Amino acid sequence: MSGTREPGAVDDAVRNFTEPSHILNNVTWWYMKESQEIDSNILKLYELNRKVDGSAYYCLIIAYSLLIFLGSCGNILVVCVIIRKPAMRTARNMFILNLAISDLLLCLVTMPLTLMEILTRYWPLGHNSFFCKIIGTSQAISIYVSTLSITAIALDRYQVIVYPTRDSLHRFGAIMILGGIWLSSTILASPMYFCRKLEIHYNISLPQIGIDSIAYCLEDWSVKHGRAYYSIFVLVIQYVLPIIIVSVAYTRICKKLQYRYVSTTVVKKDNELSRRKSREDRRRKTNSLLIAIALVYCISWLPLDICNVILDFSNPFGEDYHTTMVVYAVCHMMGMSSACSNPLLYGWLNDNFRKEFKEILALVCPCARSNTVRDRFTSLRSSVSKRKKSKSSGRSFEKIGMKVKSANEPEEKSSFLNESRSKEDVATKERSTNVTEVMNTSIENYYLDEEIDLKIETL
């Protein structure tokens, strides 16, 4: 299958391990059955329970440990920010909280267990088949939840920016959507529960290393090429459809922001040029962020999905299991790196989250407190300045609108008193009416732009 297949299954992708001769390799199994003269290297491999040897073994441990540490720290910060501050518990942030929780599961559950299955030759967690089933299923669920959460965030941002006048999503609606995400993820991952099994081989006498039985957590599909078909299905659901939805949604958002900037008509003032420049810089930053989110998702998950499909159909490395495991591990780490990049893309690059991050870090690290206080003061001063500019611009629009309206009233009265008004007077009134309509449109555009800008700041 695709991005959700964790290698307790990778062994099964390399060789269809359904017979003892496949489990231990033909030669190894024959020696164990027919002879007590077992090669010392083979004994050592099974004594250490290692599938990957040499420097690759330690490099994989270090790389996975680094990903687990960085991803856990980043996602714990996101969770703490949203739980700590009631103002951050908005409907939109519920999606980010859900993404952080699923990524935290990737770091604390999926990555350690995947590393265990990559490095070990046989199942090291005892003879309980439930662990074999539930571990593979939980790994798949966490990946699905992360993917669907990213898709939901993209659709929510699309609705907020492209249709700003519509009612925003409330917290209850967000919770219902999140429940649907977890339920859908569980259903999509359910084949992993039914197809994984623990195969235990007794009557193995290896007194030299104290082993009398060996267990393997395998995938046993009732349909021929069942895993390959499931891999294609998961590739579409977990990669192709989400990347299409995210790309289309963010492309529409970028076009909407560009259209609003180009089409906006405002009254020129001394500070209007700098204000428009600031708005354009903010929207350009937003566009860059949206593009980065789509690209990071695409690049992170593509190698793992392609690797899974290739291994399910035909292993290009043949009997070289060591190379197969290393290649799979590298592809898997690229997919898991999204758990490290998501806190940056959805958290640190958001001004509100970054401010809260700094406050939490200041509590942990006293040396950062002075910088946090200075940043908070700067943020407060900037916020007050924005409010003043907004109010002054709004008042200027209202004053101009009132002037145009008062200029029209005498002409409206004169139209009733003097029916023989000249064509020139009619044209003058029409021009005044057009000016009023333009001003009203400008005022509406202004307030709509302000509303969009406020929503952009929360992305």
* Number of separate structural domains: 2
Helix content: over 70%
- Annotation, overall tally of beta strands: 2
CATH-level-4 superfamily name of the largest domain: Rhodopsin 7-helix transmembrane proteins
- Strand residue content: under 5%
Shape: elongated
Separation, N- and C-terminal Cα atoms? 34 Å
* Total number of helices: 15
Enumerate the strands of the largest sheet in spatial order, edge to edge or round the barrel. Answer: 1-2
The CATH architecture category of the largest domain equals Up-down Bundle
CATH class of the largest domain: Mainly Alpha
What structural class do you assign from the helix and strand content?
mainly alpha
- Low-confidence stretches are 5-37, 396-417, 435-448
CATH topology of the largest domain: Rhopdopsin 7-helix transmembrane proteins
| H/E element order | HHHHHHHHEEHHHHHHH
Q: Main sheet?
A: 2 strands, antiparallel
- What integer value in Å does the Rg equal? 31 Å
The oligomeric status of these chains comes to single chain
